[in-house]
Design goal:
single chain, 7 helices, alpha/beta, six-stranded mixed beta sheet
């Protein structure tokens, strides 16, 4: 209850920090508040192998729920160049899931606020976690931690299997 009830509990954080399979965290909501039932599946994309794993799970969830997929690439310092991380991150998945409507979004913003904004209308937010976020984020990245605690929809955390290189 109270402030602690608004945040994900230690069991959720511990499970998401150590699990090799994706973990979905569903926080308690204010009385009478329901998560969006008809919103899109939102996935954070950064072009890394782990992000590719998260994209795969997001497509699978979107197909199963017959929901559109919003793929968000957010970076405050988006470099100019021929490599588009969003295009790379979605490559192959559209062909595998042709019935999923995909809406790519690229924003010049830090990932945390961009994904939190998208969580307001999403039915599920899917992110990879590399665990690069300092002491608190030692096992679970700081962005993943923030999303787990503050997203307005359920959050799926996809951790490395050991085959990806962060």
């Amino acid at each position: 209850g109270g402030l602690l009830g608004a945040l994900a509990g230690s069991t959720a954080v511990g499970t998401a920090s150590h699990a090799v399979a994706p973990v979905v965290v569903v926080r308690s909501r204010a009385e009478g508040e329901e998560p969006p039932g008809d919103g899109p599946i939102v996935v954070g994309v950064d072009g890394s192998p782990l992000s590719g794993r998260a994209v795969g799970y997001a497509f699978e969830e979107a197909a199963a729920r017959r929901a559109p997929l919003v793929a968000v690439h957010a970076r405050a310092d988006v470099p100019e160049g021929p490599r588009d991380p969003l295009a790379v991150g979605l490559a192959g998945w559209r062909e595998k899931y042709p019935d999923v409507a995909v809406h790519p979004v690229t924003v010049r913003e830090k990932p945390r606020p961009a994904l939190l904004d998208h969580s307001a209308t999403a039915r599920l937010l899917v992110v990879g976690s590399r665990g690069l976020g300092g002491f608190r984020g030692l096992l679970l990245g700081s962005t993943s931690q923030a999303l787990m605690h503050h997203a307005r929809c359920p959050v799926m955390i996809v951790r490395p299997t050991g085959k990806e290189s962060p």
